[in-house]
Amino acid sequence: MKARVYVTLKPGVLDPQGRAIQHALENLGFGGVEGVRQGKFIELELADGTPRESIDEMCRKLLANTVIENFKVEVA
Amino acid sequence: MKARVYVTLKPGVLDPQGRAIQHALENLGFGGVEGVRQGKFIELELADGTPRESIDEMCRKLLANTVIENFKVEVA
């Protein structure tokens, strides 16, 4: 089975990487870019039947820093 | 308007970061982790009416390295 994990910075947490992307897009001539936030996208290939709680625990223990990041899990 | 961009390594491209995550999960005691691929997830806040082609161009010019990465755009 496959699981997709999306890790995003919590609102209010500064995102210097996102700012850098925003400035670079403006410098390339793209107008109307009002904000950019960069996160992580992790695809896990797991043994069939891995429980959802187990995936959430992977996120809390390793994949996301829950102090500053949110995560979302999609099981496909 | 919001656009979400998912950037993933093309199949066959080595992903040392994904391997490191896989080993770390195993060391934490999570079984059955058969593979991990790490990608990027970028949220763009754009002026309303920004055409889809313009977002694709941002990906090709800056957000993704199309030699080794694929990208997917979702407009919300």
Automatic annotation (TrEMBL), chains A, B:
Recorded GO CC terms: cytoplasm
InterPro entries, alphabetized: PurS, PurS-like_sf
GO molecular function, one term: phosphoribosylformylglycinamidine synthase activity
Superkingdom, natural source: Bacteria
Keywords: ATP-binding, Cytoplasm, Ligase, Nucleotide-binding, Purine biosynthesis
Protein localization: Cytoplasm
Catalyzed reaction equations: N(2)-formyl-N(1)-(5-phospho-beta-D-ribosyl)glycinamide + L-glutamine + ATP + H2O = 2-formamido-N(1)-(5-O-phospho-beta-D-ribosyl)acetamidine + L-glutamate + ADP + phosphate + H(+)
Listed transmembrane segments: none
The enzyme's E.C. designation: 6.3.5.3
Pathway: Purine metabolism; IMP biosynthesis via de novo pathway; 5-amino-1-(5-phospho-D-ribosyl)imidazole from N(2)-formyl-N(1)-(5-phospho-D-ribosyl)glycinamide: step 1/2
GO BP annotations listed: 'de novo' IMP biosynthetic process
NCBIfam families: phosphoribosylformylglycinamidine synthase subunit PurS, PRK05974.1
Subunit structure: Part of the FGAM synthase complex composed of 1 PurL, 1 PurQ and 2 PurS subunits.
Function, as annotated: Part of the phosphoribosylformylglycinamidine synthase complex involved in the purines biosynthetic pathway. Catalyzes the ATP-dependent conversion of formylglycinamide ribonucleotide (FGAR) and glutamine to yield formylglycinamidine ribonucleotide (FGAM) and glutamate. The FGAM synthase complex is composed of three subunits. PurQ produces an ammonia molecule by converting glutamine to glutamate. PurL transfers the ammonia molecule to FGAR to form FGAM in an ATP-dependent manner.
PANTHER family: PHOSPHORIBOSYLFORMYLGLYCINAMIDINE SYNTHASE SUBUNIT PURS
Protein family per UniProt: Belongs to the PurS family.
Identification of the protein by name: Phosphoribosylformylglycinamidine synthase subunit PurS
Organism: Glacieibacterium arshaanense
Origin organism lineage: Bacteria, Pseudomonadati, Pseudomonadota, Alphaproteobacteria, Sphingomonadales
Record gene name: purS
